[in-house]
Amino acid sequence: MLDIKWIRDNPKALVEALQKRSWPAAEAQSAVDDLIARDEARREHLTELQTRQERRNAASREIGNAMRSGDAALAEKLKAEVGEIKAFIQNGEARERELDKALNDALAVLPNVPLDDVPVGKDEHDNVVKRTVGEVPARPNWVMEHFEIGEALGMMDFERAAKLSGSRFTVLKSGLARMERALGQFMLDLHTTEHGYEEIQPPLMVRDEVLFGTGQLPKFEEDLFFAPHGDGRLGLIPTAEVPLTNLVREDITPHEKLPLRYTALTPCFRSEAGSAGRDTRGMLRQHQFYKVELVSITDQDSSLAEHERMTECAEEVLKRLGLPFRTMTLCTGDMGFGARKTYDIEVWLPGQNAYREISSCSVCGDFQARRMDARYKDKDGKGNRFVHTLNGSGTAVGRALIAVIENYQNEDGSVTIPEALRPYMGGLEKIESKYAHPPDQ
After folding, report:
1. Residue 350 belongs to what domain range?
2. What is known of its domains (predicted)?
């Protein structure tokens, strides 16, 4: 959530920021004008409330003076005035809550302001390559996509998953099921033992206010799954960013404890409401998938450096697995709602003959902290500031499985296991068909 004081002082800057995020100029100007008008109405009402409260206090003193001087008529007149003021204040407090809610509702749907060095653009075609790691090998004519390999191995079953749950689910078996587990464990061990992240096992279902804190609500409600709970509901997490970031909600963290770095391996649940017709085959876009998440909580001076560090931690996963990748700086039109700057890491998939996203690392500034009321004690101990939050995939386990399958596939249909994973696979070097004779293709 943006700071309304900053908006009042910098309305033109916010209009320009919204336009960079592909808002039409008239819509951006209207949204900013509406915010300022809502805030002005709220401030005028608060001023009137304060004036009435001051008059009530003064009239109460005047009643005492009138009673002492024996002026009963004046005392009664003042009492009537105080009664009217009390009624106004009672109604005024309810009106204050209405005005607060109206302002906060309008603020809640505004995206974050991009940093100045973020490239301006409309969509993924305007993203900029930051670096490329690893060479893309020549593509043999026998190369297949991951789902073709997995089905031929007898270890990836989409038909049975559809019978159980519908589309965008997968049943993994045998060696591929074990490899997915191995990938998650490998990533967790790397981030905890070498990168200094604290492993967390968070709840997988959270309250609405927690989803609001990280920006999923109210704007992206259709992308979420919910389950009834008591008189309300709980949302299934779309990413572990949600519970990990909210670990500091409504807290004041001592400065000396920063930065906080958390990691978790969890299932994630997404309705994929906006992706109809995209990546319908295979495991690239699922309703349920595993991901290792990275979250950092920093002070305001450290967040940009932490963003570079977090991205390098995610990249190291792919380096250890020997997977070619490139890191992209997302343009303003392709960046997430709560981000000020985002790097996407795209792994090479020879089956698709394309780079595909496997990690997204974002710095959010104090945008989420304002929604969560998450603060830290300043260095001098005299004041409190909003923390800065960062999140990234370290990485998406299912997509890492896809990348390993496609990059380590062999002409005979087997998949070589990367050396980094072999300790997690009992020393196994290769995954081969579970069939004596692979089924006809």
Report:
1. 124-431
2. Consists of two distinct domains, a catalytic core and a N-terminal extension that is involved in tRNA binding.
